[in-house]
Amino acid sequence: MDPHLQIAITLCLAAIYPLLHIHLRRIVLLTASYAFYAFINFAFLPILAGVSVSAFLGGIAVERWRKSNILTTVFIVLLLTPLVLYKYWETWFGSFVLPGIPVSSLQFGGYGSVLIPVGLSFYTFQALGYLIDVHRKTVSAEHNILRFLLYMAFFPQLLAGPIERYKSLSRQLWSAPTPEFEKIGPAVLILLYGLFLKTVIGDRIGVAVDEAYLASTVGWRDAVTATAGFTIQIFADFAGYSLIAVGTAQLFGIDLTNNFKQPFFSHNLVEFWQRWHISLTRWIGDYLYRPLGRLMWRMSDGHRMIAESLTSIVVWVVMGLWHGPTLPFVIFGALQAIAMQAIRLLGPDRPAMMPPWRLGLGMLATFLFISVTFGLIRTPDLVTYAGMLSAFMTLAPGKAPAVEPTILIIGIIIMFIVEFIFRFRPPPRLPPSYTFALIGLLFIITVLFGYDQSRSFVYFRF
Predict the structure, then answer these.
(1) How many CB atoms lie within 10 A of CB 315?
(2) 461 assigned to some structural domain
(3) pLDDT tens digits, residue range 15-73?
(4) What torsion do the CA atoms of 82, 145, 257, 285 make, to the nearest 10 degrees?
(5) Of 178, 194, 122, 191, whose CA–CA distance to 153 is shortest?
(6) For residue range 84-138, what is the model confidence (pLDDT) as tens digits?
(7) CA distance 181 to 85
(8) Residues 277, 142 within the same domain
(9) For the chain, how many structural domains are there in total?
(10) Which residue range is the domain that position 315 belongs to?
(11) Closest listed residue to residue 57, CA positions, set 79, 36, 40, 42
């Protein structure tokens, strides 16, 4: 769905939402969420419903027979089956031949297409988190099917997160609070800023990234665009989606996780991953890293360094595979793990005691490492990736990718100024007149300068 149309429909729905009785609000949100998903592809609805009902029944069964680890494992495997089939089967085992099975028709410019139904990775992780929490007695099993379906399908975060926990999101959704009037303006501002990131920066620089990978003769400028340019693209695209989700949810009185906290102003890689895709890294930490770490501790006879290193490598390889099923993604994950373990070996990290020049140097080095390794997520194969690195290191001549430089550069400067302010200054409290003036300005900018060939959000691939 075109993001402009999506936002227009959302604003209309949000306008009537406070006028409804609490029971009707729940029904409207659930109906709107399933209608939203059906608009993308009606055939995806049975998959969403199937995963949701499986998790719902699994939670009840696991709570009743909690001592049975086998039962929990069976339901985890059941929930993961659609994700494995769509994301990995064709790459690992050959043709994906199942008559009548729905596949994605979304296009990602030069990034190609994928089979996986949009959102499947994200709502599968929400379902798994709920099931594991029931097994751990963190939450009680839900017995109201409508309440659980709403938790699984809430439309602002259905397609690409944030990945929310049942305990927090379900309580908010079922209480169906009346949105506070003073939060409406800031919510719309957040939403429009996300749209600005997506359409003015992400879509525009994405065209240049595509051209860099299609260049017949790769030059150093193609290499910079394919790595640093893609890093900016994926941030503008994914942070843009997350802000649209957060702003949209606030229009209905719901608070979602802030998925990005100025990651480009991180002084090292460890801090970067504490600020990038926060809901996923927290999910991985709670449900994979800590349990696996305890297992590695026992297997290594209490050798902390060995346990941490093995755990980190396994977890980050899994993180790489979550993004894609091929070797470049595995290498991407392994490089993150190795680099972070190297940082930890250097000793205690005290950024508050570092001089500004050292913090700045750390931020620059982190951005360089992230840009080089994020190229592994974008490259079609390792040969192409090696060619990009070679062109950069040898400063090979080549034609620069075509892009509208003025609009793009101004957009990126605005983005970094906003990121800097929120990273190093208290969040500004704007009077209503300033808020609505910024809303008007952002609306005009996105209409006039948003790239007019809107492509799907990059993280819809994952």
Answers:
(1) 21
(2) no
(3) 999 999 999 999 999 999 999 999 888 889 999 999 999 999 999 999 998 878 899 99
(4) -50
(5) 122
(6) 888 887 667 666 555 566 655 555 455 555 667 888 999 999 999 999 999 999 9
(7) 45
(8) no
(9) 2
(10) 182-453
(11) 79
